[in-house]
C-alpha cells in the first residue's frame, strides 16, 4: 500500500511538473548581424519560451533555395546545399543552453547554416540522420552566400562552443505539410522542437523541424 501511494504521489508530481512552452512573435531584428545577412532574413522572429522564460529566438531566411532534382534518402531528408544559410538564432538563456551534442552555447547571436554529418570513421553509429544546422557567431559570418568549404564552416562553428567540434542542432524529418509554426515537446527525449514552413521558391515551401532544446543520447 505504501509503495502504491508513493507511486501515485510520484505520478501526480510528474504531471504537475510538466513543462509548458509556447512560441511568441518577435518584431525586432537580431542584433549584431551584418547588413547583408539582415537583408535576406524574414522580418520578425519566433521566440521559444519554456515555463514563461525566454530560451532562444529564431529568424528564418526569406527564401531558402532547394535542389531541383533532390530525392530524399534514408540519411538525408532536406534538399539544401551544405553551407547554405537558413536563418539566425539568438540564445537568450544564459546558462545550461546546449547544442545537440551537449556542448554549452553561450548567450549571443549566431547564424544557422545547413550541414551534413560527415561520412567518416569518427561518426559511425552516432546518427542515422545526417541533416543538421551549424551555429556560427555572427561576427564571423557576414555574407549570406553559401560557404564552399565544409572545413571552414566546421571550424567557425566550433568557436561557438569553444571546442574542436561544430555547434550543431538536429533537423528531424517531417511527414506532413504545415501552415503555421508550432512548438512541440517530446517528453521522452526532452526535446523542444520548432516546426515551421520555409519558403524555397515563389509560392512554394517545405516544412522544417528543428530541435532547438535537447541533446542526443
Characterization of this structure:
The protein is of the alpha+beta class. It has one domain (19-213). Helices cover 14% and strands 34% of the residues. It contains three helices and ten strands. It has helices at 2-16, 35-38, 150-161, and strands at residues 21-26, 45-50, 53-60, 85-91, 108-116, 131-137, 168-172, 182-186, 191-201, 204-213. It has a ten-stranded antiparallel sheet with strand order 1-2-3-4-5-6-7-10-9-8, covered by helices on one side. It starts with a helix and ends with a strand.
Number of helices: 3
Strand order of the largest sheet: 1-2-3-4-5-6-7-10-9-8
Main β sheet profile = 10 strands, antiparallel
Shape: globular
Number of DSSP E strands: 10
What is the straight-line distance between the termini? 36 Å
String of helices and strands = HEHEEEEEHEEEE
Features:
single chain, 217 residues, 3 helices, 14% helix, globular
Tell me briefly what this model is.
The protein has 217 residues and is of the alpha+beta class. Helices cover 14% and strands 34% of the residues.
Topology:
Blueprint: H1 2-16, E1 21-26, H2 35-38, E2 45-50, E3 53-60, E4 85-91, E5 108-116, E6 131-137, H3 150-161, E7 168-172, E8 182-186, E9 191-201, E10 204-213
Antiparallel strand pairs: 1-2, 2-3, 3-4, 4-5, 5-6, 6-7, 7-10, 8-9, 9-10
Amino acid at each position: 500500500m505504501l509503495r502504491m501511494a508513493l507511486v501515485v504521489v510520484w505520478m501526480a508530481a510528474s504531471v504537475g511538473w510538466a513543462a509548458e512552452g509556447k512560441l511568441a512573435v518577435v518584431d525586432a531584428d537580431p542584433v549584431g548581424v551584418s547588413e547583408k545577412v539582415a537583408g535576406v532574413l524574414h522580418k520578425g522572429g519566433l521566440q521559444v519560451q519554456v515555463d514563461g522564460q525566454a530560451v532562444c529566438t529564431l529568424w528564418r531566411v526569406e527564401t531558402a533555395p532547394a535542389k531541383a532534382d533532390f530525392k530524399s534518402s534514408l540519411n538525408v531528408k532536406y534538399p539544401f546545399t551544405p553551407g547554405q544559410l537558413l536563418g539566425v538564432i539568438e540564445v537568450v538563456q544564459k546558462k545550461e543552453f546546449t547544442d545537440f551534442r551537449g556542448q554549452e552555447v553561450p548567450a549571443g547571436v549566431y547564424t544557422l547554416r545547413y550541414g551534413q554529418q560527415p561520412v567518416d570513421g569518427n561518426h559511425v553509429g552516432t546518427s542515422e540522420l545526417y541533416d543538421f544546422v551549424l551555429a556560427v557567431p555572427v561576427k564571423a559570418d557576414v555574407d549570406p552566400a553559401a560557404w564552399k568549404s565544409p572545413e571552414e564552416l566546421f571550424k567557425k562553428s566550433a568557436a561557438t562552443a569553444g571546442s574542436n567540434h561544430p555547434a550543431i542542432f538536429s533537423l528531424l524529418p517531417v511527414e506532413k505539410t504545415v501552415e503555421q509554426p508550432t512548438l512541440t515537446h517530446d517528453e521522452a527525449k526532452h526535446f523542444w522542437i520548432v516546426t515551421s514552413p520555409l519558403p524555397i521558391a515563389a509560392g512554394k515551401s517545405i516544412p522544417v523541424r528543428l530541435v532547438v532544446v535537447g541533446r542526443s543520447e
